[in-house]
């Protein structure tokens, strides 16, 4: 049986690789019990370091939309050159300061 494929970077996800389920609509934004996708942990971390839950719910609730985001596309291109089990720490949030009233 083939390994599942990460919907962000397109690399296979071997059983021993760090992996997690990503809720396409964040649980706190109505996605509890909704669709999830299996992905590399590093890819999942990058999504949440790049986009807020509001942004994920409003405009990035499909793998296609995530891949189309400029920063995530650049990340996916970079990580796709690494082995399927590659993992490294994701630096702290890169979205900038949190804004009130969103």
Distance between the termini: 45 Å
- Count of individual helical segments: 4
Main sheet: strands, sense, barrel: 2 strands, antiparallel
Helical fraction equals 25-40%
* Helix/strand/pairing category: alpha+beta
The share of residues in extended strands comes to: 5-15%
**CA-atom Rg in angstroms:** 14 Å
Number of strands: 2
Q: Rough shape?
A: globular
Strand order of the largest sheet: 1-2
* Global mean pLDDT: 88
Q: H/E element string?
A: EEHHHH
Pick out the low-confidence regions: 97-102
Model description:
This protein has 102 residues and is of the alpha+beta class. The chain has a domain at 19-79. The protein contains four helices and two strands. It has helices spanning 41-50, 53-59, 63-68, 70-79, and strands at 19-23, 36-40. Helix 1 (41-50) packs antiparallel against helix 4 (70-79). Mean pLDDT is 88; it is low at 97-102.
What's the short story on this structure?
The chain is of the alpha+beta class and 102 residues long.
Element layout with pairings:
Layout: E1 19-23, E2 36-40, H1 41-50, H2 53-59, H3 63-68, H4 70-79
Antiparallel strand pairs: 1-2
Helix pairs in contact: 1-4
Which tags fit this structure?
globular; single chain; 10% strand; two-stranded antiparallel ribbon; alpha+beta; HNH endonuclease; 102 residues
């Amino acid at each position: 049986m083939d390994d599942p494929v990460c919907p962000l970077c397109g690399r296979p996800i071997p059983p021993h690789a760090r992996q997690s389920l990503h809720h396409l609509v964040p649980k706190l934004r109505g996605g509890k019990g909704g669709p999830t996708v299996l992905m590399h942990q590093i890819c999942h971390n990058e999504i949440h370091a790049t986009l807020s839950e509001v942004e994920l719910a409003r405009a990035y609730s499909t793998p296609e939309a995530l891949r189309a985001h400029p920063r995530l596309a650049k990340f996916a291109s970079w990580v796709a050159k690494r082995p399927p089990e590659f993992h490294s720490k994701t630096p702290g949030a890169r979205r900038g300061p949190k804004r009130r009233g969103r």
